[in-house]
Amino acid sequence: SRLTSLGQLEMTWRSRCHFHPLLVRVLHKSRLRYYGKPEKKRDMPYQAYFEVADGSGMMSMVLWNSLCPEWYNSLKVGTVLLLEQYAIKTSYPFKTQPTPGDSQMKRFATIEISLNVRDPPTKISIIPEEMVKPEWGLPEVKYRFITRSELEDLPNNHSCDVIGLVTFVGRAERARKREHGEDFWLYRWAHAIDGTSDQPFILELFATSQPDVFERIHPMTYLVCTQMRVVRDLTENPSSTIYLTTSNESQIFITGWHKGQPYTKDTKVKNFIQWTKTQSEADQMKKTVIGGYYPFPRPPNNFLKY
Asked: Residues of the signal sequence (predicted)?
C-alpha cells in the first residue's frame, strides 16, 4: 500500500527527500564499469547501470561502489526488486541507451535511481519469480530476436538479439581503448548459424562482465547474444561486411546458462531449437573451426586501395 511508481517519482521527486518503496523488474543490465584513478583513493570505484520498469514506464538505476561486488551478479535481466531508501538524481546525459524490446514503453529519461551504501543506505530485496503477483502490473522482458535471413535488410546500428549454433570461435584479441593508452578491450570473433541462410552471423564479442561465459564459447554450443548492434560498411559493398558487435548492455549466454532465462519463451528461440533437432551433430562438427587469426573486415585486394 505504501509503494510508489516510477511515473509518480518523476512528477514529485523535487519536492521530496524520502521516497516510498519501489517494485520494479530489471529489463537491461550494463557491463560493470571501473572508474578508479591512482590519485583518488576510493575503496571500490565501481558502477553499473540497469534499466528497470514497472507498469508506468522504464528508468535507469545505478549501482555504486561496494554494492557492485555484493549485488551485480544477483541482479539478472528479469529479476524483480523491492527498493527502499534510495536516492533520486538527475540523469547523466552521456550514458548509452539500450533499445527496449517493447517500443511502446514510456521512458523516464530526466532522472535516475541511485543505490549507494550510505546517504541513504539502500535496502535491496529480490522477490522470487514464483511470488510475483500479476496485479503488480510489472512488464515482461521482451526481446528483438532476428534470424540470419533478416539481417541483410537491417540498417547500420540497428539493435537486435540473436541465437545460433557456434561453428567458429577465434582466439581472444586485444585492441587499445585509446591511442597511446595502456587500457585494452578484449574481444573475439565468432560465427553462428540458425538454418535460415547459407551465411552465418559474424559476431564481434567484446568481453562483457561475464568472464565465465566469454572464455567458454566453443563450437557446437547454442549462443544467445542480446542488445547487439548491426555494423555495415556503408562505403563499398554494404552486404559483404555486415556483422554484429556487442553494446554496453549486451548479455551473452551459452549452453548451460540458458535455463530460466526470459528469452526461452521467445518464438524465434523455440523455432531455432526445433531446427537444431533436425540437424546431424556429426555433420555440423565437420564444419566447425576454433582459434587462429581472423582478419575482419577483410583488407582490400591491393595496396593502393588500402
From this structure: none
Mark whether 113 and 10 lie in a shared domain: yes
| Domain shared by 160 and 36, yes or no | no
Enumerate the β-bridge partners of residue 123.
84
Which CATH number do you get for residue 156? Answer: 2.40.50.140
Angle at 298 between CA 294 and CA 304, to 5 degrees: 140
* Domain boundary pick from 136, 156, 179: 136
Task: Look at residue 1 and tell me if it is in a domain.
Answer: no
The string of pLDDT tens digits covering residues 122-161 is: 999 999 999 999 999 999 999 999 999 999 999 999 999 9
pTM for this one? Answer: 0.90
Q: Which domain holds residue 245?
A: 148-305
- The residues pairing with 115 across neighbouring beta strands, listed in sequence order, are 63
- Which among 139, 117, 125 has a CA at the least distance from the CA of 52? 139
Do 86 and 191 fall into the same domain? no
